Amino acid sequence: MASSGINAEYMGSLAPTFCRITSHQNTNSIMTSRTLLVIFIFKNVVCEPLLDPVAVAEAGTVIAEASADYVVDLLCGCGCRFVDVKTCLADTKKLCKDIVKSKCVTKDKVECKDEYKEECKTVYNDVCHVEKKKACKTEYKEICKPVYKAPTYKTPAYNGQKCEKVPEEKCAYLDEKVCKKVPEKKCSRVKVPKCLTIPEETCRDIPAKDCKEVPTLKPYKKSVKECQRCETYEDLVIDITYEKNCQRHKKPNCYTAYKEVCTPESKEECTTTYEEKCTVTYAHGKKCEKIPHKHCKYVQVPRCEKSPYQKCEEGFEDKCKETPKKVGEKVTKHRCSWPKRSFFDDTRC
Is pTM beyond 0.70 here? Predict the structure, then answer.
C-alpha cells in the first residue's frame, strides 16, 4: 500500500496541472517484485489548454524512474530499462608459451608459361631486270696491196699482191636479263614455353607448450538501470498549399453561320391564250370554238440558297497555373530521450 500511495501522490500532483478528472470508472494495480504499477482507466478527462511542459516532462521522468522496465503512458510514454555493463574482476589464467621446432624440406617447383617470341630469318629473292649489254666480236677482213720485188741474181722480178687479214671489231647492244639475290627479313611470332624453377621450402612446426599461472582480469556483466527523460521540442510542420495565378487571353468564339445567297437564273414562263374562231354553215349555222395559243418567254428569276461561313465573336479564355508553396508552422511536441550514458564497459578485459 505504500507504493500505491506514492503513485496516487504523483497522479494527484499532475491532475491539477494538465487535466481535470471528473470521474473514473476502474482502478487496477499490478504488483511486481520491483515496484507497483497503478493503471487508472478514466471515463471523462477534460484537459485544460494551459499546460506547463517542463512540469509535465519532470513528472513523466519521475514516474518512469519509479517503474523500471515498464512504460508509463503519460504524455511522453517514457520508461526505464536495465543495461548490461561489462566490468572486470581480478583472476588468474594459465598462460602457455609455444616452443616451435621447425623441420623444413626444399624441393624445386617448375612453373611454365607461354611467351610469344619474334623469330626472324633472311630469305633471298631473285630480282631481275633487263639491261642493255654491249656484245662485240672480231671479224677478219682481207686487205691486199700490190707488191713489186726487184729481180735479183737468184730470183726474177715479182709484181703481184700481198694480202693480209686485218681484224675488225663489230659491236651491238643486246637485251640481257640480269638477276641478283636480294635478302629479305621475314619475322613471325612463335609461342615458346618459358619455364622457371622456383625452390619451394615447406616447414612443419612441432609445438611444445611451456605453461604458467599469470594474473588477469575476468569480465562479467552488471545490470545498471537507466531511465528516459521527457523533453519538449519544437517541430516544423510543413504543409503544401497551392497558389493559383491566372492570366486572361483573347480567344475568339467562332462558329458556323448561314447566310442566304441569291443568283439570277433564266426561267421559261409560258401563258396560254384562247382565240375564238367561228364558222357559218347552212347546215349548222354559226359555230364557234376556242383555239388555245401558247406564248413562252424567258424571265430572270432569283435562285437563293443558304451558304455556310465562319462567324467569330469576341471571347476570352483564362489560363491558370497552380504553384506549390510550402507553409511551415512550429508545433511543440514531446519525446522521450535517453540521457547521456555515464557508465561504460570496462575495456581492460
Answer: no
